[in-house]
Amino acid sequence: MFLKKAIVATLFFLPVASFASEGEKIYKKCAICHGLDGSKKSLNVSEKIAGWDADKVIKTLHSYKDGKIDKYGFGKMMMGQATKLDDNQMKVVAKFVEELKPAKIKKEMKDRHISSEELKYNAFLKDYFKKNRNGTTKEAKQLWRKHLLETTK
Ligand code: HEC
């Protein structure tokens, strides 16, 4: 009897759980620029996206993907991000963005002890994109690795 209940409960909760974690997984890439809790103005230009209506996020991502918007001169950068997402991934990440609540997430992140390495990398990336408007995340990653190798020698 107990087992049966447990199985039913698992079946019920599983899809919800995987939905949430998939959005979080995708958002990790966005977090580099928009902040772990979505409360960062990306490159000091964009709006804080935490809590945006999911439909608005989806619409905006589509517009970037189609090259239709370039709000602050970094449209190409967002186009590169949006192009990597299919419709379903956009939906899932949009839902995650909608549910981002800065104060709450900040506390969760603190509890999870986000590594200082990650924070340093974020700061490095931000600096990189400030200096290289047409830079790519790939190149930034290479430079970061080089930087790490040099500083740990
Ligand atoms: C490399 C840095 C970077 C990454 C990664 C990134 N963004 Fe952005 N994002 C930006 C910048 C810069 C802008 C402003 C673009 C412009 O000039 O229109 C922006 C704009 C946006 C906007 C519109 C904000 C506004 O002010 O209108 C949304 C929504 C958004 N991004 C969502 C996302 C999502 C979701 C992801 C992950 C799939 C993501 N971004 C990944 C840098 C980034």
Which helices and strands appear, and what pairs or packs with what?
Blueprint: H1 2-34, H2 54-65, H3 75-83, H4 87-99, H5 102-112, H6 116-131, H7 137-152
Helix pairs in contact: 1-4, 2-3, 2-4, 6-7
Bound molecules: heme C (HEC).
Heme C (HEC) is lined by residues 26, 29-30, 32-34, 42-43, 45-47, 49, 57, 60-61, 69-75, 77-78, 81, 85, 93, 97, 129, 137.
Task: Tell me what the structure shows.
With 153 residues, the chain is mainly alpha-helical. It folds into two domains: 2-111, Cytochrome c-like domain (Cytochrome Bc1 Complex, Chain D, domain 2, Orthogonal Bundle), CATH 1.10.760.10; 115-153, no CATH class. Helices cover 72% and strands 0% of the residues. It has helices at 2-34, 54-65, 75-83, 87-99, 102-112, 116-131, 137-152. α1 (2-34) packs across α4 (87-99), α2 crosses α3 and α2 (54-65) packs across α4 (87-99). The radius of gyration is 18 Å and the shape is globular. The relative contact order is 0.12. Heme C binds next to α1, α2, α3 and α4.
Shape: globular
CATH topology annotation of the largest domain: Cytochrome Bc1 Complex, Chain D, domain 2
* Class from helix and strand fractions: mainly alpha
Total count of strands: 0
Q: Are there runs of 5+ residues with pLDDT below 50, and where?
A: 7-20
Report the average pLDDT across residues. Answer: 83
Beta-strand content bin = under 5%
**H/I helix tally:** 7
The CATH H-level homologous superfamily of the largest domain: Cytochrome c-like domain
Query: What is the rounded distance between the termini?
Result: 60 Å
Helix content range of the residues, please? Answer: over 70%
Q: Work out the count of structural domains.
A: 2
What small-molecule ligands were found?
heme C
Proper CATH architecture of the largest domain: Orthogonal Bundle
For the record, the CATH class of the largest domain is Mainly Alpha
Order of helices and strands: HHHHHHH
The radius of gyration computed from the alpha-carbon positions, rounded to a whole number of angstroms, is 18 Å
Sheet with the most strands, sense and barrel status? none
